Structures are given as structure tokens and as C-alpha cells.
Amino acid sequence: MPILEAKGVRKVYRGDGVETEALRGVDLKVEAGEFTALVGPSGSGKSTLLHLLAGLDVPTEGEVFLDGVRVDRLSRAARARLRLEKVGLVFQAYNLLPVLTALENAAFVLEARGVERRVREAKALEALAALGLKDKAHRYPRQLSGGEQQRVAVARALAAEPLIVLADEPTANLDSRTGLALVERMKALNEERGVTFLFSTHDPRLLAHVRRVVRLEDGRVVGEERA
After folding, report:
1. β partners of residue 167
2. Quick one: which of 224, 226, 208, 204 has its CA closest to 41?
3. Alpha helices in 54-131 (DSSP H)
4. Is residue 79 within 8 Å of 71, Cβ to Cβ?
5. The pLDDT value given to residue 87
6. 4-94+162-226 sits in which CATH class?
């Protein structure tokens, strides 16, 4: 059974009397252990698809499954709980809390789950160490570079040991060298620990590091390649 699956997913946004069709019948399966990139031009539907897969939104038509549970039929609260337990999210804007240290930010999801402090801090520190940030654990976001802040965001996703990490353009705000270093870290975690990753990107330089590329155009899957 795939970790994630979209079946005939269509998403239409409506506003001011105008309809915008962001996704036009997308089918996608993601298996455990994959390291997959969604690629396509701006407006192709990459972010929309990730949001639907994470349960942040629901499709206009079609079905979304996460670990065998049909997400689009759940209430908003139930989707949030499932996401908290099963999914690690990484956004372009980092979304770190400025009043928390890197360690506290990395432990945030575990705290939301009610995990005791000693356990959550140990898991968070382990995740930071895996991303080369153990020595920055007690620094605040303002004391970190953009690349370091994005790695803290990845550590936050990993510390909770999710089924899958979904990352929306994780290197978009990084220079090419820092972005490549982040993807190499993510790939190492995939290969060494079996962490499943699905991330969107518009950067062709990163594609040499992924095992599967799914191409979107105008809200449709138009092809895929496997390494």
C-alpha cells in the first residue's frame, strides 16, 4: 500500500466570479522510501498538489489517501491530527518561531503531540545533528543563516519521525550552493534512514539527486522518469 495516493484529483479555486482550475485529474502514488521531486513551471499545480496530499486543503473532485486513510473525507480537525502524526512539512518561508531556539523549534511538533520534554529534546537534537546543526541548537533563528534556518525546518519535520516529509520548494530562497547542500543532506537521510521525501522544485540542478521525477504542466501529470 502506498504511503500517499491521489486518484483523479481536481482542484478548482473560485473567486470574483472566476474559476481557476489548478489541478485537472491528477493520479499519483508515493511508496515508502522514495525520494521524489515534483517539477514544472510556476502555476503547474505543484504546491496545490502538496497541500492536498498533506490535508491542508481538500480537492474539488477525486480522492486523497494517506497511510490508507481517505483524507478528503475527514473534518478539518481530523486532517490536522492525521497530519500532526504522519506528515513532516517544510515550507519555503521556514516558519520558525523567532522566540524559540533551533532545538525548541525542532521539538515543536513533538511538543504539540504531548511528548515529554526529555524525549522530545533528545529527538530534536538528533535531527539537528543529522543536518549538521548540533552546535547551533541553542541559537535563535535571527542568529542563523537562511540555509541553517531551512535545515532547522527540515529537522523539525524529521524529529517527529513522520511517514513522509513533504517539502514545497525547500531551496527556493537559498543560493545554489546552499540549496544543493540541503538536498544532499535530505538524500543522505533518505538513503541511510529510509526517510520518504516528496518535494517540489523548479531548479533543474537538483534533479540529478532524485530517484524519481514527476512532471506537471497546467495541472496535469505529463510524465515521469526514474533514476
Report:
1. 90, 199
2. 204
3. 76-86, 102-106, 108-112, 117-130
4. yes
5. 94
6. alpha beta
